[in-house]
Amino acid sequence: MKQFSTLGYGSKSIATLLIFTIFSCCSENDVLLTNDESMLTLNNQEQFDELVDFVMEADSAEMAEFTNTLDFKSLKTIMDEVEAAEEGLLAELEMKYDPEIPREREYAAITKEYLDKEVLRLDEFGIPELNIPIPAFALFLNEEREMKIGDKTVRFSYDDIKVIEPQTMTEIAVNPVERIIRETKKPGQENEKSCTSTSGKYRLITYENNQIWSSGTGVPCSDSRFSHWLKLRSLKKVFGSWHNHKTSALRVKGSVRISHYKSENHGSDLTFIRYMTNENNYFYNLPDHHTATKYFIKDYPLRYGINNECIQYHIKFDYTNHVGIGKNGTTCSL
C-alpha cells in the first residue's frame, strides 16, 4: 500500500514538489492508494477537495509527477495514448491521400476500443474526449472512471456522478451533472455556452462551463458544488472535417465576477454571501496543446454557515466577459 502526503495541494510553492513524498506510517492526511483495487482511495471529502484544487491548477511537470506515482493507468494516460494514436493515423492518411479531398472519418483502434467501453465519448465535431464531467479529473480516475472516498466508490461520467456501496455494488446516489446555461447576446456566439472563430483551415472554439455537481450522497442536505471554467480547443480542417491541432497560441483575457447568494422566501429574497470569483482585466497564456482549460471556480461548496447548514442557493453572474485567442488570428468572446 502506498501512502502519499496531501500537504501542498493547491499551492504553487516548493511544497507542491513534495506532494507525494512516501511515508513509512499512516496519518490522517495521507492519501492511500491500494494496489488490489487499482483506484485512488481518499479518507474523506476534505481530501477530495484538496485533490481537486491541486489537479485544476497543476502544470505539466506536476501532472507528470502525479501520474508516475500511480500504480494504475489514469484517464490522463489513456487520453495521451488515444491522442497519439489519432495523430499517427491522421499523419498516415495524409501521406496516402489528398487532405483537401473530403473522406469518411476514421478512428484508431485504441479509440474504438475505449469508445466501446464508454471511457470516451465524441464531441460535436466527432473528436474523442473523456466521458467525465470535468477534464481535470482525468488525472486521478482509473479506466472505470472510479475512485474511493471513505468507504464509498464514486463513478464519474459526463452526465452524472454515482455513489456506490462497494460490498453490494448498490447505487446509493445518482447525482445528475447540471450545466447552467448563461444566456448572452454577444455577436459571433453560436449558442449559449460557446463561440467559434474560423480563419482559413484553422478554428478556435471557446467553451464556457458552469456546472453544479456532487460526489456525495446529499445527506443530510445538498452537498452540491459549483465550478466555472473555460475550455479552448484548436482545430485544423483535414479531409473535410475538423481535427485537433496543437498550438502555442491559446490565450484568454477578460473579466469575471460570480456571486453566491442565500435564497429565502421561495427565491424572492436574496442575501449576499461572497464572491466565488472576482477577476478584472485578467490575461492568461495557456499550455501548448490543442485543448486547454482555465478554472476560475474549482469546487465551490454551495452550502453555507456553521456546520454547512442547508440553504437554498442562488448563483448570480454579475459579469462575465471571456475572450478566447487562438491560432491564425482566431478570436471569439463569451
TrEMBL record:
Domain of life: Bacteria
The protein's name: DUF4848 domain-containing protein
